[in-house]
Amino acid sequence: MLESILSILITGAMISALYALIAIGFTMIFGVGGVLNLAHGALIMAGAYAFMVLNREIVWESVALPQIVVFPLAVGIVAVLSYGLYVGLVRHIEDNPVITFLATVVLATAVTEIAIATFGDQPYSYTVISGSIGLAGTAVSYNDLAGFVVSWIAIGVLWYYITQTDGGRSILAASMSERGARLTGVDLHSVQTRTWLIAGVLAGVAGVFLGGNQAATPLMWLNPLALAFIIVVIGGIGSIKGSIVAAYLIGYTETLTVSVLGQSFRGILSLIILLGVLFLLPQGLYGREFVHE
């Protein structure tokens, strides 16, 4: 019994850390620009395929890049793609939320079709770090453990940037009030650019480790993005702290459900929690925390 509980705690912590990264990027873009970016899922998939392609020497057969180079390179590619998505598409239509939402849906679908045409629909397995370690009787892969550690490093760096630097505070100001930020001299274009780059980095990191955990497939982003949407609503749209708390709530709920009821009931409890929060706390657990600070 104790061993099962420890297994759920450890497994839930590993997957929750990656859900938190996805949800934070998703909620930052919505909090700052009011954009419901469904293409965020495609960026997660792009991270996994970028790592897989660079790691398998598909591009340069005679050149073997070390893992320590492949990882930041894959994450950097996703960050650039996220920036390109903003500059090339969203920036021109963001004044119309409905059109922007539909455009990101279409783009995510198009990217998925391109991935299927290029790589096929079969899963590609890889690991960021091979091997596993026993923790309290539970075998944990180094891939998942590294994902957990990197996730918290990324969250810590982001928290410091947001709360302790002028650039981060300008993102907070823009998330509180675009008009107010503009009146105080905040460069909104720069804020949007940095927000989309940060969201791309977080999606890239999550995508690389999710691909290492579950294999890279063209549809690998559907479930994480759906969960990220649930997490953001539960935590409070625009709240980074709320996204972290809700990510662990949903991650542990999902892990417990799979362990007790089986894989087919994976998302049931998460949806029940979402409905409960919508009825009892429509603003989420933390609401727009920055508005009130």
Topology, pairings included?
Blueprint: H1 2-33, H2 40-55, H3 67-93, H4 97-119, E1 132-135, E2 138-141, H5 142-164, H6 166-176, H7 178-183, H8 188-214, H9 222-235, H10 240-260, H11 268-280, H12 289-292
Describe this structure in words.
This protein is mostly helical. Helix content is 74%, strand content 3%. It has 12 helices and 2 strands; from the N terminus they run H-H-H-H-E-E-H-H-H-H-H-H-H-H. The chain has helices at residues 2-33, 40-55, 67-93, 97-119, 142-164, 166-176, 178-183, 188-214, 222-235, 240-260, 268-280, 289-292, and strands spanning 132-135, 138-141. The protein has a two-stranded antiparallel ribbon with strand order 1-2. Helix 9 (222-235) runs parallel beside helix 11. The longest helix is centred in the N-terminal third of the chain and has 32 residues, at 2-33. The model is unreliable at 289-293 (pLDDT under 50).
